[in-house]
Amino acid sequence: MTSSHNYGVNTLSLKGGNHDATRNYLEVLIYLTVLGMLVLSLQLLLRMARTQMQPRPKYVKPDPLFKDFAKGQNWSWDWVMVFAVRNPDDYVSDYQRRFTLRRVVERLESGGLETKLYKSYTYDKIFCKIRCSADRLKDQAAEVCYPLLLDETQVVARIEKGRKKPDGEWKWYPRRAGWLLTGENEAGEYVEREQDNAIVDTEGQSDYPYERFIYGKFDKRPDLQHPSVYVTYPASNSIFRSVDRLKLIEGIMEADPKKRGCNLQLKELLARGACLAIYPLHDDDELQTIQDRWLTPCDPPWAQPIVMVKDYFGEKVGMYFLFLGTYSTWLFYAAGIGIASFGLELLGGQYLTWATAACGICMSLWTTLFLECWKGEEARAKLEWGMTGFEETEEDRTEFEGREIHSPVTGLPDAYFPPRDKARRIVGSYLQIVLCIFYVSCVNAGIFYVHAYVSRYPLRNYVDFHHLADGPFGVPTVVTNLALALLIQATNALFMPFATRMTKVENHRTETDFEDQLIAKVFLFQFVNSNGALFYVAMAQGPLTRGIGDKQPWKTRRFDCAPYCLEHVSYLLGTIFIVRVVLGNWNEVVAPFLARLRKDAARRRGHDEDDAEYEDPASTSIRKRQVSPAEEQFEKDDYGSLDIFDDYGELVVQFGYATLFVSAFPLAPVFACVNNFIEIRVDGWKMCQNTKRPWPKGAEDIGTWESVLTVVAILGTITNSIMITQTSPAFTNVTSSYRLVAFVVLEWILIGAKIVLMSVIDDVPEDVELQEQRQEFLVTKIIVDEADEEIDLEDDEFIEIDEPKVYQSDPCLREDAGGGDEDDGPGGEKKEPDAEE
After folding, report:
1. What is the torsional sign of CA 645, 648, 654, 655?
2. Are 366 and 690 contacting, i.e. CB atoms less than 8 angstroms apart?
3. Side-chain-side CA neighbours of residue 104 (13 Å)
4. What are phi and psi of 416, to 5 degrees?
5. How many whole angstroms separate alpha carbon 363 and alpha carbon 337?
6. Is a pLDDT exceeding 50 seen at residue 753?
């Protein structure tokens, strides 16, 4: 039996011809062991998650002065600011003197926020909890035109009813069938005309009812409040979700005093040491519900509670998990392709040849199908989450610096940073990245040189280990692959803070610009760093072997794989994948859990409990001090925009591993699929248990990461075409010129197929586009109250009558719109309430 990856390489043979079969069994055993380790880590994670979320003591102090369910104000504290208790001899900067605890609290209360202060159980910190009344939240929502979901019943009732002016004329007409428009024609005759302008989808263009997922800005107009046109959430009896409250309170804290704001730049308070921490508080009940639905052992990726996640953590986090779930779902199909290809390779012979080619071709098309379908999911989420046009309202970053000028557009004061200075800084950043890539490439070259030397001269001066120096499982090969895998992980981790500092120096105006530049830098470095060794082994190792002298270390049987180097790529990529999975699970699960255990043990040893925030009114005994939820959450790690950036970066690197060299390692999508199945739980557990609640941010897409994935998909088509036509046994007896022709033909066939798929699959589905147009129309009528163009009654179809008919009720009115409950006016028109007139 031949090896599953023995593409013409002379390997050490054992008597009986069982060496290749033994190596196949060993390879399969290693892969199954790794998959078993992943399953065990999942079980450990779920066990920790169940035991870690223990029931905690509740706040039992009554709060009747704030909580009022009937008023729609049924919540507690939302934000926390933490201040240090300073000693008299501590150094205090001018900025810290300007923003002391007392002055910050004064500003918070001047903005209409409520505060509560208490000392930590260690007496070295002061916690300031912040909340906001329902009326103040409505004022802020109206000020910033905050978008809220409209109640479907109210949308139908109001749009079918229409709206009249105070003089009784229609301001905008009802959208229903069978209502009568009455009036006088030019001859002064009274006429009526039956109208049929109901919003119906006769051609089945959309699966959405027209009233579904309609978001409109909040308006305090009385007719929109009673009854409320906005959705009321049962838990709080409020039109605001918890994530809405957090966003609005953040806006109040940072708003200008002229708009009843507190004029506090939160990130600047943290950066300059005025505050130790600022973070939203977790809601244990809501968090427990999410965790119970999220951290399950067997639910597929498409069954995540995405709506609950985005309603609690914000749309930006929700978009990440939506992408992770969609990507993992599509990996199931890719894993099927990989398993089938690997099974055929185990059979050897012609099966191996065609399996290699079929796997590369199928995966090249898979990348396009996945990305195009993701664009549709992204557009659907943007509609359903009310994020349409979010980036158009983005404000400047707090860190942006520029000299003040008069805006050439509005004439108002504006910050200006010269584009030439920005361009110089960007060029300098990329020059530093080139140097980083050069240094890493030199280290990789050194590792390959040592490997080649040891392979040629295998410790002959000490012990004869020559039999260990050959083959993919030889000691030098295994050590080299492990060294390269560890180097990739270490350098990728070290480069991230370096790239962040460079991007901050470039002084970008908005958060989107900042993230786009950071993505470009990280992708450039990580792509070369993560895949450079693979490109070398797949495409340069063989030609380099033939082009140098016999005395060089490279001139050895181990490296004389040209043109069939897929075996070496397979084992190197497999090693990188395994190391990446193991280190990732250690860093994201085991290490945080152990660190938290150490913190809890140290806290129990070093401090006694004392009286404070928890108390039981029914008990006559004095209870000792318990650590409050705010203090517990202070000890957790932060989860900011750069953390979610790292999560996206990991997925992009994995996407490259799963597609660029899949012809050599068809099990790459399998490992990616299993890893992501666990990654969903790992990231969910991290969000629920190991980090503070993130500052909620909106997002209408995944940003530049989508363009990065498209570039990787195109490169994957090219690399797989090269490997099929240049370094696989499919073209053993073909000359180099014919191989080149085969490469060009295959590449352009695949690119042409990708272009066809991109043209056929819409980036924005038709029903989503139609619903966006409906949303724009309905909001202009119900919220903006925009008038319709007057319908001309001078038409041949109108009916002349001597006097108007009087109907008892309009049969076309829906029951929930209140049809038939009131007397109808002349012409069959329903009388409008006086308040609306």
Report:
1. negative
2. no
3. 29
4. -130, 130
5. 8
6. yes
Taking each helix axis from N to C terminus, what angle separates 475-505 and 419-456, rounded to the nearest 10 degrees? Answer: 170
CA atoms within 13 A on the CB side of 714: 8
Residue 710: burial class (beta carbons within 10 Å; 0-12, 13-18, 19+): middle
3-state helix/strand/coil string of 14-41:
CCCCCHHHHHHHHHHHHHHHHHHHHHHH
Q: Are 527 and 423 in contact (CB under 8 A)?
A: no
7 within 8 A of 20, measured Cβ to Cβ: no
Q: Choose from 26-40, 368-382, 399-413, 548-562 the range with maximum mean pLDDT.
A: 368-382
Q: Can you tell me the distance from the alpha carbon of 444 to that of 437, in angstroms, rounded to the nearest whole number?
A: 10
Helices 242-254 and 134-144, axial angle in degrees (round to 10): 70
**Tokens at residue 771, please?**
């619903």
In the numeric block, which tokens belong to residue 482?
């492990």
Q: Tokens in use for 105? A: 């609290």
Question: Which pTM was predicted?
Answer: 0.83
Kindly give the residue spans of alpha helices, DSSP state H, lying in 78-236: 94-98, 101-110, 134-144, 152-161, 222-225
One-letter identity of residue 145: C
pLDDT in tens, 241-262: 999 999 999 999 999 898 899 9
DSSP code of 187? T
pLDDT at 605: 67
Q: Indicate the residue type of 716.
A: G
Q: How far is 809 from 580, CA to CA, in rounded Å?
A: 70
Gap between the Cα atoms of 353 and 241, Å rounded: 57
CA 348 to chain centroid, in Å, comes to 42
Element (H, E) at 585: helix 566-585
Helix (H, G, I), strand (E, B) or coil at 423: helix
The angle at the Cα of 219, spanning 216 to 220, to the nearest 5 degrees, equals: 155
The Cβ-side half-sphere exposure at 556, using a 13 Å CA radius, reads 20
Which DSSP helix (H) or strand (E) runs through 488? Answer: helix 475-505
Query: Measuring CA to CA, which residue among 140, 384, 86 is closest to residue 254?
Result: 140
pLDDT of residue 667: 87
- Residue 504 to residues 387, 511, 516, 712, Cα–Cα distance (Å): 27, 11, 12, 26
Place of tokens 């990065």: 708
Q: Say whether 578 sits in a helix, a strand or coil.
A: helix
Terminus-to-terminus CA distance in the chain, angstroms?
Answer: 89
User: How far is C-alpha 333 from the chain's CA centre?
Assistant: 22
Amino acid at 207: D
Q: Please tell me the distance from the alpha carbon of residue 690 to that of residue 588, in angstroms, as a whole number.
A: 9
DSSP 317-372: HHHHHHHHHHHHHHHHHHHHHHHHHHHHHHH-THHHHHHHHHHHHHHHHHHHHHHH
CA distance 417 to 212: 44
Q: How far is Cα 248 from Cα 256, in angstroms, rounded to an integer?
A: 14
